[in-house]
Amino acid sequence: MDKLRIQGGRPLVGEIKVSGAKNAALPIMAACLLSEKPIHLSNVPTLADIHTMRKLMIGMGADIAVDADHMHINCSNINQFVAPYELVKTMRASILVLGPLVTKYHEAVVSLPGGCAIGARPVNLHVEGLQAMGAEINIEGGYLHAKAPNGLHGAQFLFDTVSVTGTENLMMAAVLAKGQTVLRNAAYEPEVQDLAHFLNKLGAKISGIGSDTLVIDGVEALHGGEYAIVPDRIEAGTYLVAGAATQGEITLTNIQPEILENILLKLHEVGVDIREEKNAVHLNARNKNLKAVNIRTAPYPGFPTDMQAQFMALNTVAEGTGIITETIFENRFMHVLELQRLGANIQIEGHTAICIGVPQLQGAQVMATDLRASASLVIAGLAAQGETLIERVYHIDRGYERIEEKLRAVGAIIERI
Ligand code: UD1
């Protein structure tokens, strides 16, 4: 199993090009199941999760060719409607094929994703929403069996809890349903908005994009087209935090600063200089006194849970006390024990982690437990004195494209062994 070896304690300095967003590319790929015409996507990141979605869709009969960051998808020959356990267990986002298959092909068999390291992560809202639109759904042998012999119809649906993939699944289903669907208390993360813009480009009628109420008028069919995936705000935020934690100077390109919003606000609070350009962000943390910050994760436009672990790593080397409250997932502090191995001073009380900055972390052997936890360990390892060895880096390959290459380009000493 691959490991990452880092020699820390050096400021990161230089330029990093941000990749396309994993969490936008995955639903957009799944949405291609809704159209029988060719679709060309650009700015698609090369990641393990994208490969898994590709494999899943090829198994259903899709034709998907990849060259560099372009993906050419043709779903005119879909003949299997099954998402098998072997793939779903490696990537929960496989559930995103459920809505498209049921609305377009009137049937779907999708393995239940089950729990994952960061929490229970149920899919009841996906199921209830599709049932409201006329799907019959049974659970047998660990699989969701969904049928809609006469297709889906529009419905009014209120999300009890804001769900990103839940909103995406129901939005995709509603696009080809008969009549109008209204989704209330819907998620509107930039990646959800990107999916909606993509669908409208193919002829869908979605309004309310960028708000918590989506109104979707069903159409007969979608056409083909081209679309560029939005840049990855979590990847971008991770590299900015790494720049701050190492008191370096980083320029990110291929990123619109406005999608980083509260990540940049928090970095201002940390005490680093941020300069925004149209498609770039500059961070200067040289000789700055970093201050620990309080964070409370919340659905968009709140602070993203996917950046919580990285800011925790930053707090461990900042001055003062930062209080981090996780409100989205019940078990998303697994990086704490590993950060403590590097000398971090963190106490957990329920859903809150109290981080008291220390003058210096020391390198150690640690274990990655999930995708964003891995990113926090890389940041801490880059800031720590001496060698850090991170095990189970396959987690990080799910969401960060060529991470060691990008970090080496800004002066990090990091290698995969
Ligand atoms: C997505 C993101 C993930 C991010 C998360 C929260 C993708 C592929 N993944 O995951 O990176 O961390 O949003 O921003 O986009 N819930 C229910 N019932 C449901 C669905 C969700 O109770 O049917 C709960 C979950 O347990 C969780 C909360 O809702 O507590 C939010 O989860 P959700 O937004 O659905 O996360 P994902 O879409 O799985």
Layout of secondary structure:
Layout: E1 3-8, E2 13-17, H1 22-31, E3 39-42, H2 48-59, E4 63-67, E5 70-74, E6 82-83, H3 85-88, H4 98-105, E7 107-111, H5 124-132, E8 136-140, E9 143-147, E10 156-158, H6 164-175, E11 180-184, H7 190-201, E12 205-207, E13 213-217, E14 225-228, H8 233-245, E15 249-253, H9 261-270, E16 273-276, E17 280-284, E18 295-296, H10 308-316, E19 321-325, H11 335-341, E20 345-349, E21 352-356, E22 365-367, H12 371-383, E23 386-391, H13 394-397, H14 403-408, E24 413-416
Parallel strand pairs: 2-15, 3-14, 6-7, 10-11, 18-19, 22-23
Antiparallel strand pairs: 1-23, 1-24, 3-5, 4-5, 7-9, 8-9, 11-13, 12-13, 15-17, 16-17, 19-21, 20-21
Bound molecules: uridine-diphosphate-N-acetylglucosamine (UD1).
The site of uridine-diphosphate-N-acetylglucosamine has 23 residues, from helix 1, helix 5 and helix 6.
